[in-house]
């Protein structure tokens, strides 16, 4: 069963959500990617939003068009959340963000911040970008469009029946993908050998 959530989210609602649950959203969200976090943490530059009233952030660079009168969202493809791991924790604590939406899951630092602030992470499950775009009812505002461009700018969107999304990290720190991650770590040598990956291969640090 899919749970319908009305935004903004409150602590009682986020605390009630459990890893593995499916949800849809209705209300206002804002977007952000690497530039949002870098500018916020390193330069103290933030969009002038009421973060109590708009407290759900989506990791996405939307595709939009302007017909001369208004913006219209053509596509929404959530980007990989783990790329934001370095800075997400401080931002969640500062803004009291109740939910992050992004592809995949996040790491220990972000999970700890979510436990401290009663927040969750939501992951898309096989949703086409154009279908998510159709669930955007209005582009309310945009910040830093000229400075950093449309992909990295912060867009404020009113959404309806938005999703569904999977609660992959709940406010108690339970990660729906945890058993898969643990299994992969425990079987790392066999997996690397199977796919021809050198055991000393080093990934780009986050």
Textual characterization of the structure:
The protein is α/β, with parallel strands linked by helices and 206 residues long. 33% of the residues lie in helices and 30% in strands. It contains eight helices and nine strands. The chain has helices at 11-16, 34-42, 85-95, 108-117, 129-134, 145-152, 178-186, 188-195; strands at 2-6, 22-32, 56-59, 63-66, 71-75, 99-101, 120-124, 136-143, 154-169. It has a five-stranded mixed beta barrel with strand order 2-3-6-7-9. Helix 2 (34-42) crosses helix 3 and helix 3 packs parallel to helix 4. The longest helix has 11 residues, at 85-95. The termini are far apart. The mean pLDDT is 92.
**What is the share of helical residues?**
25-40%
What's the rounded overall pLDDT mean? 92
The assigned structural class equals: alpha/beta
Number of strands: 9
Widest sheet: strand order?
2-3-6-7-9
Task: Provide the gyration radius in Å.
Answer: 17 Å
Q: What portion of residues belong to β-strands?
A: 25-35%
**What is the 3D shape?**
globular
The span between the termini is 35 Å
Low-confidence stretches: none
Number of helices: 8
**SSE pattern:** EHEHEEEHEHEHEHEHH
Key structural traits:
single chain, 206 residues, alpha/beta, two-stranded antiparallel ribbon, 33% helix, 30% strand
Quick rundown:
The chain is an alpha/beta fold. It is built from 8 helices and 9 strands.
């Amino acid at each position: 069963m899919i749970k319908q959530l009305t935004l903004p989210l409150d602590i009682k609602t986020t605390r009630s959500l459990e890893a593995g649950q499916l949800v849809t959203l209705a209300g206002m969200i804002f977007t952000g990617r690497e530039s949002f976090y870098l500018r916020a943490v390193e330069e103290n530059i933030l969009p002038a939003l009421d973060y109590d009233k708009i407290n759900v952030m989506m990791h996405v660079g939307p595709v939009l068009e302007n017909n001369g009168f208004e913006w219209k969202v053509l596509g929404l493809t959530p980007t990989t959340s783990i790329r934001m791991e370095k800075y997400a924790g401080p931002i969640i604590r500062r803004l009291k963000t109740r939910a992050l939406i992004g592809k995949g899951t996040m790491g220990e630092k972000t999970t700890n911040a979510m436990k401290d602030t009663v927040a969750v992470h939501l992951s898309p499950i096989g949703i086409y970008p154009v279908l998510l775009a159709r669930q955007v009812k209005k582009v309310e505002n945009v910040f830093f469009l000229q400075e950093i461009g449309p992909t990295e700018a912060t867009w404020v969107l009113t959404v309806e029946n938005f999703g569904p999304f999977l609660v992959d990290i709940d406010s108690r720190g339970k990660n729906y993908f945890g058993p898969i991650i643990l299994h992969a770590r425990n079987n790392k040598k066999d997996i690397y050998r199977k796919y021809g990956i050198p055991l000393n291969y080093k990934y780009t640090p986050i």
